[in-house]
Design a protein that fits this description.
2 helices; 71% helix; elongated
């Protein structure tokens, strides 16, 4: 096994990307539904739902990380 035992994902970056995905796909899904494009509306709605759920997962993991680390520890966008 070559992977470190304490590997962590870049939660702050994932938060930004998931937010962008939600902000981008949700209005497009609504627009596609209003315009009568059913399949793109459903696909974009599924992507928006995945981004929304991912936001909750990211926040849960950020809280877990915050509890494990000493007070005053700060992370950059890419940590």
């Amino acid at each position: 096994m070559t992977e470190p035992r304490n590997a962590q994902s870049a939660l702050n970056l994932r938060l930004v990307l998931a937010s962008f995905g939600l902000i981008f796909t949700l209005p497009l899904a609504v627009w596609a539904a209003v315009a009568g494009f059913t399949l793109p509306a459903v696909l974009l709605g599924v992507l928006a739902t995945v981004a929304f759920i991912d936001l909750f997962v990211i926040q849960y993991r950020r809280r877990q990380r915050r509890r494990r680390e000493p007070p005053g520890t700060h992370h950059s966008l890419f940590e």
